[in-house]
Design brief:
By secondary structure, this protein is mostly helical. It has one domain. The protein has helices at 3-27, 33-46, 51-68. α1 (3-27) packs antiparallel against α2 and α1 (3-27) crosses α3 (51-68). The relative contact order is 0.17.
């Protein structure tokens, strides 16, 4: 696996973890819905994939689907 794809996986993992934590905080009533939406937008913007990372990730998905299918 090349560095670009590894970077994409790391970003996606961090993004999902932070989104899960934020959802849990809202579910427990620690933050308001408005604060949740602001944090969610911030997380999505910060961990957005670059074009190269997105291409590498899409290629990886296509290749793994071919192997399975």
């Amino acid at each position: 696996m090349d560095k670009v794809l590894m970077g994409a996986f790391e970003k996606l993992q961090k993004r999902e973890h932070l989104l899960r934590v934020t959802r849990d905080q809202m579910g427990l009533g620690r933050i308001t819905k408005e604060e949740f939406k602001a944090r969610e937008a911030q997380i999505l913007e910060r961990y957005d994939l670059t074009e190269a990372e997105q291409r590498a990730y899409d290629l990886h998905l296509r290749m793994t689907r071919k192997r399975r299918g």
